[in-house]
Amino acid sequence: MRLLAIGAALAMAAGFPAAAQQPAEELPRITVEVDVVNVLCAVRDKKGGLVANLTKDDFIVLEDGKPQEIRYFSRETDLPLTIGLLVDVSKSQESLIEIEKQAAARFLAEVLRPKDLAFLISFGVDAELLQDLTGSVPLLRRALEELRLNAAVGGVLPPPVPTGKPRGTVLYDAVYLAAVERLQREVGRKVMVVISDGVDVGSRLSREQAVEAAQKADAIIYAIYYADPRYQFFADGYGTLKRMAEETGGRVFRVSRREPLEAIFAEIQEEMRSQYSIGYTPTNPAKDGSFRRLEIQTKQKGLRVQARKGYYALKRS
């Protein structure tokens, strides 16, 4: 099933045809608009270990360089979690898909709790929603079994309208659509786990637009760089995935013999369950749509905070 569009304008912007809304499997969650900025962060020590015993008084929050008063703080790991799993099924990933199926199924079975939701998107020459938001592990496992190579003959498919950009791996379009169509209206913690070699061929949107959409949806990107050595003559996409992850407060991982895919999923799971939730009311109350640069620090030296780099002060409708 193709991705559902929120509206024709967004669908046209992303280059996908608008689709009629289908009945939701579950009742949608209610989003409450409040003038509070919520930031999820993880803290690591010099050795890279997670630090989980800090308090509100250990943190400093700066917005555009100005200190902010922390009003809400929690080390709760009980906040609702929405996970978007985005899997690259382009030609360069052909030999990796079976491994991805098995590891992802175990990850979702272990990480999802009764109030959590997940969805699955595959992307190659186009992006496809294989499973909409659900808390059902069996449904997600069934959708993972549907992962198939999505490539044209020769690995590149010309677009329906001549644009000069062949379509082969629409990574940026997939991230954008996951953020806008599935995560933007959700509450709680929102995560995208992207498995790819990071090489985008033919997306209609740019990396910057994809990252902006994720930031506006308050979604963290965890990127897993998984590359078939046979396709290393392509540009190295590790740097692309690293920038996308770090701008949204996530991390990038590289699959290797020493760190297989299953071990990386375990690291992501541990981090998601070890985050701090920080909330504050900005001293700048303007809702002008501008980007506000965020910096989260700890008073204790030698600790590194992993959090999104900023947010958009969106106008309330």
Task: List the topology elements.
Blueprint: H1 8-14, E1 37-44, E2 59-63, E3 66-68, E4 70-74, E5 81-88, H2 97-111, E6 117-123, E7 127-134, H3 137-144, H4 171-183, E8 189-196, H5 207-216, E9 219-225, H6 238-247, E10 252-254, H7 261-272, E11 276-280, E12 291-298, E13 304-307, E14 310-312
Parallel strand pairs: 5-6, 5-8, 8-9, 9-10
Antiparallel strand pairs: 1-11, 1-13, 2-3, 2-12, 4-11, 6-7, 12-14
Helix pairs in contact: 2-3, 2-7, 4-5
Structure characteristics:
317 residues; four-stranded antiparallel sheet; alpha/beta; 7 helices; 26% strand; 2 domains; Rossmann fold; six-stranded mixed sheet
Task: Explain this structure.
The chain is an alpha/beta fold. It has two domains: 37-66 and 276-312, no CATH class; 78-272, von Willebrand factor, type A domain (Rossmann fold). The protein is 24% helix and 26% strand. The chain has helices at residues 8-14, 97-111, 137-144, 171-183, 207-216, 238-247, 261-272, and strands at residues 37-44, 59-63, 66-68, 70-74, 81-88, 117-123, 127-134, 189-196, 219-225, 252-254, 276-280, 291-298, 304-307, 310-312. It has a six-stranded mixed sheet with strand order 7-6-5-8-9-10, sandwiched between helices. Strands 4-11-1-13 form a four-stranded antiparallel sheet, with no helix packed on it. Strand 6 and strand 7 form a beta hairpin. Helix 2 runs antiparallel to helix 3 (137-144), helix 2 (97-111) packs parallel to helix 7 (261-272) and helix 4 (171-183) packs parallel to helix 5 (207-216). It is globular and about 50 Å long. The two termini are 31 Å apart. The model is unreliable at 4-34 and 154-164 (pLDDT under 50).
